[in-house]
Amino acid sequence: RKEQALAAIDAADTADAVEALRVEALGKQGWISQLLKTLGAMTPEERQERAPAIQAARGEVADAIAARKQALEAAALERRLASETLDLTLPAPDTPAGSVHPVSQVMDELAEIFADLGFSVATGPEIEDDWHNFTALNMAETHPARAMHDTFYFPDRDAAGNRMLLRTHTSPVQIRSMKEEGAPIRIIAPGRVYRSDSDATHTPMFHQIEGLVIDRDIHLGHLKWTLETFLKAFFERDDIVLRLRPSYFPFTEPSVEVDVGWQDVKGRRVLGGDGDAPGHGWMELLGSGMVNARVIEFAGLDPAEWQGFAFGVGVDRLAMLKYGMDDLRAFFDGDRRWLAHYGFSP
Ligand code: PHE
């Protein structure tokens, strides 16, 4: 019986077959287990005579089973190693990583450029009150300029009874900075602003950088020099052409709108990419002017002693020009393919 069992174990070619043979021999009802049970009923002499052979058979069968199981496992591993090959020349899988958004990139660059000119960075709330966003900027409740801002108002007033709104420009930071720091002052204030407006060059949320310089004897020449210097640094070229147009803002007097030429005098494109920018060669970039004496008063300073200039730049438009992007709405779609197209995705 033992020889027969050993031969069967050797011939078994699956783990299941080996297991079945183990149960047949060593299981509770197995023939070796049955033989071992018969030992109890024997006389001591009989038992001494028969026991060693039964124990030896059990050992031999158990060893044979273990050896066969191991051999089958080793063979299975061999087969797996032979079939699963590892190709070290395959490229590593693509692991997507984040990148800096063009708007953030431009804001960082501007902060650096203005830091070199001695400006520090100021901030203000995006949820603003009517007084800071309009009244203190010389736009009384009934001022017609308010209508041009397409303002998002909140339904409730704040504790002091102020109408609350999403700021329509970064200019309220002018007021907050003058009130907090006094004069002289030299700040930029980057941030989000909101207007109910949407087309290829307008989104309901967009970005501005406000600039404010308040000191003694500041004049329009300082403004022009500052704007030229920063735009040359930003576009990294000396042949930037600016067009200054007389304009109107309630909070500056005089007021100047500034366009940048994206074509040189020979009509060659020097800024931006494909497609026609609005203005047939000119892109409207910023509003600016000498801070209105009324605004300086509203902010608690004496306009007889302090003057200054201010400007508000469209950051998104700067990015469009610098990177040749032609639809502002794509800036806020969060589409990685768009970012990658303009070299912003790793
Ligand atoms: N706040 C103005 C706007 O959003 C821009 C501006 C800022 C104009 C500062 C003059 C001075 O249109």
From TrEMBL:
Residues 104-346 form the Aminoacyl-transfer RNA synthetases class-II family profile domain. Its cofactor is Mg(2+). It holds the Pfam family Phe_tRNA-synt_N. Mg(2+) binds at E253. It catalyses: tRNA(Phe) + L-phenylalanine + ATP = L-phenylalanyl-tRNA(Phe) + AMP + diphosphate + H(+). InterPro entries: aa-tRNA-synth_II, aa-tRNA-synth_II/BPL/LPL, Phe-tRNA-synth_IIc_asu, Phe-tRNA_ligase_II_N, Phe_tRNA_ligase_alpha1_bac, Phenylalanyl-tRNA_Synthase, tRNA-bd_arm. Its EC number is 6.1.1.20. It is found in: Cytoplasm. GO terms for molecular function: phenylalanine-tRNA ligase activity. The keyword Zinc does not apply. Binds 2 magnesium ions per tetramer. Gene3D superfamilies: Bira Bifunctional Protein, Domain 2. Keywords: Aminoacyl-tRNA synthetase, ATP-binding, Cytoplasm, Ligase, Magnesium, Metal-binding, Nucleotide-binding, Protein biosynthesis. Its main location: cytoplasm. Belongs to the class-II aminoacyl-tRNA synthetase family. Phe-tRNA synthetase alpha subunit type 1 subfamily. HAMAP family: Phe_tRNA_synth_alpha1. Tetramer of two alpha and two beta subunits. This is Phenylalanine--tRNA ligase alpha subunit. It comes from Pelagerythrobacter marinus.
